[in-house]
Amino acid sequence: MDERRTLAWHETLEMHELVAFQSNGLIKLKKMIREVRDPQLRNLYGVSIQAIEQNLRELLPFFPQAPHRDEEEEERADNPFYSGDLLGFAKTSVRSYAIAITETATPQLRNVLVKQLNAAIRWHAQIFQYMYEHGYYPAYNLSELLRNDVRNANRALSMQ
Asked: What UniProt keywords are attached to this protein's entry (predicted)?
């Protein structure tokens, strides 16, 4: 197998999506586990946290191989996390509606789902625009995008 020094753009972007999604999820799980009282459910949260931490630890070493990566910058406030979480939710909504539409046989239900899919697409665009304007999602700057992923993953891993 031919080993490359630099990741391809397409795999770098997929890695970005995975790390961003899992970092936000890890932060959320670590905040929420404090409120979980049921021992069995709390254990499931613990197992989930460990699994996501392991995923991030395995993916982060690939970031230096990403094309055009710059040095790290200082930590920012929680707005990137909250808006990123909202963006992930909106993106999942768009995907879920698209899948549901392909499983729908009833025309009236399909019409409602298409209407709601279009609304979810507009909602996603609004959140993305907010994040882009505030520098939380530098979609046209791969180095900055990956730097944000590394910072967010490290923040999630360091949380107690």
From this structure: Capsid protein, Sporulation, Virion
